[in-house]
Amino acid sequence: MTAPFARQSTCVAIADCAVLIEGPSGTGKSGLALALIDRGARLVGDDGILLQATSGRLWARPHPHTRGLIEVRNLGILPFPCADEAPVALLVTLDPAAPRFIEAAETIDLGGIAIPALRLWPDAGPLALKVELALLHYGLTG
Question: Global pTM?
Answer without folding.
Answer: 0.96
